[in-house]
Structure formats: structure tokens, C-alpha cells
Description:
By secondary structure, this protein is of the alpha/beta class. It has a single domain (1-223), classed as 3-Layer(aba) Sandwich (Rossmann fold). Helices cover 42% and strands 23% of the residues. The protein contains nine helices and seven strands, in the order ααααβαβαββαβααββ. It has helices spanning 2-21, 25-29, 32-35, 40-59, 75-82, 95-101, 143-152, 168-177, 190-198, and strands spanning 65-69, 86-91, 111-114, 127-133, 153-164, 201-209, 216-223. It is globular. The N and C termini lie far apart (33 Å).
Amino acid sequence: xxxxxxxxxKFKTAFRQILSEGDSYEIGEAALPAYAHPNPLIDxxxxxxxxxxxxxxxxxxxxxxVLDFGCGSGVLSYLLAQDGxxxxxxxxxxxxxxxxxxxxAFPSSIEFVExxxxxxxxxxxxxxxxxxxDVLEHISDLDPYVVEFxxxxxxxxxxxxxxxxxxxFYKIGRRLAGNRFTGDYHVTNIAHVKAAFERExxxxxxxxxxxxxxxxxxxxxxxx
Length: 224
């Protein structure tokens, strides 16, 4: 946990520097304002999802070939590579990540792939774990991605997904967070994301934040 908190502070400092130099729609969509937010509850909500995913990766035995789908600012990719995982970090737009990499030195072992995974550039059965943290709510047609995740997994592989409930309490919280947090780039919610996975895989809940008022869920999907 100490190591996680040290890396967290490193990235928060970088995000605040970036935001002080300018802002953009892309930076907002990559959630940099949320990860740098001064409110303790918002800080906990966003960073806790990364911590849960990071701890899950650490709980699995053996070598880890990991896909960080929709890697955004690259925090999880950085953490997992520091722990010796073989990480492929992909996103359709590396604009925010490139800005972060000007502030933070990432491990050279990370393979960065810019583009849509549906283009077929990744090898079948390559990954032990696929992480899709707070990204699938940005995608309207989820089914092709769920099928592609299944193709990319090793036989005992899993997908770890997190996303917002978009319920009334979440919307109130977003309003209280400030005008910067419109959420207009969200086209669905974690319930619909989970339903898409349940058509192809077996789903189990890993964490709910905050219970009993659930604002975010983290779940695991395994091929049947």
C-alpha cells in the first residue's frame, strides 16, 4: 500500500501540473481532473478502483501478460509494469497519455498500442488479464469488444471491468464535484456493460463503491 500511495502522489502532482498548464475535452475524458480533485471522497472513489484492480493483479500467481484497454492516463499500466507484469497499453487516442509521459517516466517494458483493438492487431490468447477500467461506458456498441476480449484471453484469463452506475446519487455527486464534471462522454452505465458481458462470460462482483449507495462497480468476467 505504501508503494501504491507513493505512485499515486507522483501522478497526482503530474496531473495538477498538466491542468495548471491548460485543459481540454480529451484531458477531461481521460479523467485527469477527477484524479487530481481536492475533495477526499472523489479522490478515494477514483483511486480506489485502480487500487482494487492493482491488488487483484497482485493476488494472481504466475506471470502476468496484461492488456490495459483504454489505458487513459496510463496509471494502471505504470503500476503493473513496475511490479514486473508484461503490459500492453492501448487506447484510441494517446493525446492525454503523451502529455502525462512528459511529466512521468514510464517503464520501457510497456508496449503502447494506439488504435482500436477491433482492427485485429493483437494475437489471440495473449493475455492473462484484461483491464477495462472506466472506459466501456464511453462505447455504445459493446458486443464486438466483449467478443474480442474473449478471443484475446488465455484459457484461464479474466477481464476486470469498472464503471459508474449513473444512478441519481452518482449524478448528484457529479454536480457537486463541479461544472467540469458533466459526464457527457458517457453513453451507458455499468449495468448495461455487465449485461453485455453476461451474454458471453460468467460475471462476479469484485467491489462496490460505496455500499449501500453504489456509485461504481468493479466486476470480473470469465469465459464459460
